[in-house]
Design brief:
5 domains; alpha+beta; about 725 residues; Rossmann fold; elongated; six-stranded antiparallel beta sheet; Calcium-transporting ATPase, cytoplasmic transduction domain A
Length: about 725
């Protein structure tokens, strides 16, 4: 396209300077016209043949052909040239957003290796059946989900999970398609067909995302459907009605002038900017989200996400890792290591997750020869002899059974009481640990203006309350069955207003009904296939911090759409009356070439604005509007008269200064990583976006930021704001 534009522009300038006229001039100008506009004419004729006449291609074809027939060859070609320049910018914007999404396409495997008679044969992945052993060599993509039966290697999973750190893989490990094998040769037994593999499902979601249009897109499509015919009939009326009226009045008809105005009207009314304003922004938004590891299945879901006020979370596997680990050793007289050793050896014959977590915490090979007389007491625990010493490991029931007094644990989790040689030696706490960034995600959601965060779980009330407290979640419902979760979500749906939307974040099979019932279902990428299928949005990195990032991206997309629509309608409101000759009496007129340039400029403005979404950082809280807070109404204290010296509250001595309302408090933040003035500006912007920060003086030379506060701001909030911009806070001084 760019070459065609350059060639056409050069030819227009060249032919305009030649001293030629008549048919020769017409023939010469037809060369650049066809070079730049043959595809537009082709599309216009196709539309007429398919009875879909009224579109922007038809408008441009009529306008340019009309100008040429009137003898304005250079203007007719220039109109088409400016239109194609606008189309070039549009295609660039679409291409950039598409590349963000289509990066996922690079994970599509082209073949699978099957060993036949000692030789490797490349076959189509679609032809590989479940249970087939495939060979993946270093540098190749894993084509199909499966289990490693032979070989050790390192896998690059960044294309799927966004995780930069490679993952070790060995025999017995399950691997998903789309990963890149980096080192050793792997033999993998397939567990799914290619069409059901992870990579295929992801690509299917990407390919289908454009088919799910938002309400805004549907509206603009319907609007354009009626707008274009109105414009065509309006141009026709402008070309014929005024001359006829002038003839009836006995005045010169001036057919040429009015047809010229009608052509200008057609060009200026071309709905390019209007039509692309919404789809292009959504496309850029989906592309930007994809670049952040958030897969949005359609623009309708991105639009709904922007209106989210309630975010509901599953607990196990979503907010917590769903893996039990030793989180503490309490009330022990012997060392932690020794107590863990006794526990791991006593539990060595059990395959229970609790036993495995004890063995993992011990971290050394288990010598079963050291253990004898193992007795597992159902519902109580285990007794055994370790190195000839009697060891009991179990719950409070076991201690009562053995007649050993024990200490209660005040922490939440599974408690393993330990008795060695008949004496109580403390207890080991095993609990489900929180996912990284879970707490930060909840804090970020609150900063983003989320009205309510809720957690639903089938776990006990005590555990659920503790987890919710640690995370800062405002509302929690525990001991729920899958059906109960759906009922609870329906209750929450009734509580909110119609304009507010509810998002549910989950990962398991039992979450699928809730994901489908919520206004927006968000699935963890590492969750089950059923949950991912039921969800509207998938977090490919499985990071909860992507939830507030996705919400910010969706809101930025809607803001971008509103800006584009404003510009498109503003342009039409000004330029259409101008083209129709409303301001002719003031000596203001347009010709088709200037109209085309204005129309092209309108498209460029819309495109450029949509491209800004590619630079948007959804992880920065600086994009959040500060919460609106009403100043508390302070009642004036009543005057109390009391004898001098008898009042329990004495006035402050006059020689002491007190901080009055309006005096700014100051904190000094020590920051590592700032290198230049740009760094200073970035940190300053991030800090001053916080509610309560009046100003920030940042120095990269000193490595400090001195903030003036209107009221106290938590150190954690200041630290989060700075570190969100990839700098390190080493300390904060009041």
């Amino acid at each position: 396209m760019l070459i065609r534009i350059i060639v056409a522009a050069v030819l227009i300038v060249l032919f305009s300077k030649l001293p030629i006229d008549g048919y020769v001039r017409f023939g010469l100008f037809m060369i650049p016209y066809l070079v730049i506009g043959y595809d537009i004419l082709q599309k216009a004729f196709k539309g007429i043949r398919n009875k879909q006449v009224f579109d922007e291609n038809f408008l441009m074809a009529v306008a340019t052909v009309g100008a040429i027939l009137l003898g304005d060859y250079s203007e007719g070609v220039a109109v088409m040239l400016f239109y194609q320049i606008g189309e070039l910018f549009q295609s660039y914007a679409v291409g950039k957003s598409r590349r963000n999404i289509s990066e996922l396409m690079d994970i599509r495997p082209d073949y699978a290796n099957i060993e036949v008679d000692g030789k490797l044969e490349q076959v189509d992945p679609d032809e590989v059946e479940i249970g087939t052993v495939i060979v993946v060599q270093p540098g190749e993509k894993v084509p199909i989900d499966g289990v490693i039966i032979d070989g050790v290697s390192i896998l690059n999973t960044s294309a799927l999970t966004g995780e930069s750190l490679p993952r070790d893989a060995k025999a017995g490990d399950e691997v998903i398609s789309g990963c890149i094998n980096m080192t050793g040769v792997l033999k993998i037994r397939t567990i799914r067909e290619f069409g059901e593999s992870t990579v295929s499902k992801i690509l299917e979601l990407v390919e289908n995302s454009s088919s799910r249009k938002s309400k805004s897109e549907n509206f603009i499509s319907k609007f354009a459907k009626y707008y274009t015919p109105v414009v065509c009939y309006g141009a026709l009326a402008l070309a014929f009605i005024p001359p006829i009226v002038l003839l009836i009045m006995g005045k010169p008809a001036m057919w040429g002038d009015w047809i010229y105005r009608a052509l200008t009207f057609l060009v200026i009314s071309c709905p390019c900017a209007l039509v692309i304003s919404i789809p292009l922004s959504f496309f850029a938004g989906i592309g930007g989200a994809s670049n952040q590891g958030v897969l949005v299945k359609g623009s309708n879901y991105l639009e709904t996400l922007a209106q989210t006020s309630y975010v509901v979370f599953d607990k196990t596997g979503t907010m917590t890792q769903g893996v039990f680990e030793v989180s503490g050793v309490h009330h022990n007289e012997i060392s932690d290591e020794k107590l863990l050793e006794y526990a791991a050896l006593a539990e060595c014959s059990s395959s229970h997750p609790i036993s495995k977590s004890l063995q993992k915490a011990y971290g050394k090979p288990i010598d079963r020869n050291r253990v004898t007389d193992i007795e597992e007491i159902s519902g109580n625990g285990v007794t055994a002899k370790v190195d000839g010493i009697s060891v009991a490991a179990g719950n409070a029931k076991l201690m009562k059974r053995l007649g050993i007094s024990y200490q209660e644990c005040h922490h939440v989790g599974t408690v393993i009481h330990m008795a060695v040689d008949g004496k109580y030696e403390g207890h080991i706490l095993i609990s489900d640990i929180l996912k990284p960034h879970a707490k930060e995600a909840i804090a970020e959601l609150k900063k983003a203006g989320i009205k309510k965060t809720v957690m639903l779980t089938g776990d006990s009330k005590r555990v659920a309350d503790q987890v919710a407290k640690e995370l800062g979640i405002g509302e929690v419902y525990s001991e729920l069955l899958p059906a109960d979760k759906v009922s609870k979500v329906e209750e929450l749906l009734h509580q909110k207003s119609e304009k507010e939307k509810l998002a549910f974040v989950g990962d398991g099979i039992n979450d699928a009904p809730v994901l489908s019932r919520a206004d927006i279902g968000i699935a963890i990428g590492a969750g089950t296939d059923i949950a991912i299928d039921a969800a509207d949005i998938v977090l490919m990195k499985s990071q909860l911090s992507d939830v507030p990032a996705a919400i910010r991206m969706s809101r930025a997309t809607l803001r971008n759409i509103h800006e584009n629509l404003f510009w498109a309608f503003f342009y039409n409101a000004i330029c259409i009356p101008l083209a129709a000759g409303v301001f002719t009496g003031f000596g203001i007129t347009l010709n088709p070439m200037i109209a085309s340039a204005a129309m092209s400029l309108s498209s460029v403005c819309v495109v450029t604005n949509a491209l800004r979404l590619n630079t948007f950082d959804p992880r920065s809280a600086a994009h959040d509007a500060p919460p609106k807070r009403k100043a508390p109404v302070r009642a004036s204290a009543p005057e109390i008269s009391c004898p001098t010296g008898s009042c329990p509250v004495q006035p402050a001595p006059e020689n002491k200064t007190t901080q009055t309302e309006g005096t700014a408090m100051k904190k000094t933040i020590h920051i590592e990583g700032m290198m230049c003035g740009h760094c200073e500006a970035t940190v300053k912007k991030a800090l001053e976006a916080l509610d309560g920060v009046q100003s920030a003086e940042v120095s990269h030379e000193k490595g400090t930021a001195v903030v003036s506060l209107t009221h106290d701001v938590a150190d954690a909030d200041l630290k989060t704001a700075v570190e969100a911009r990839d700098y390190t806070v080493t300390g904060i001084d009041a």
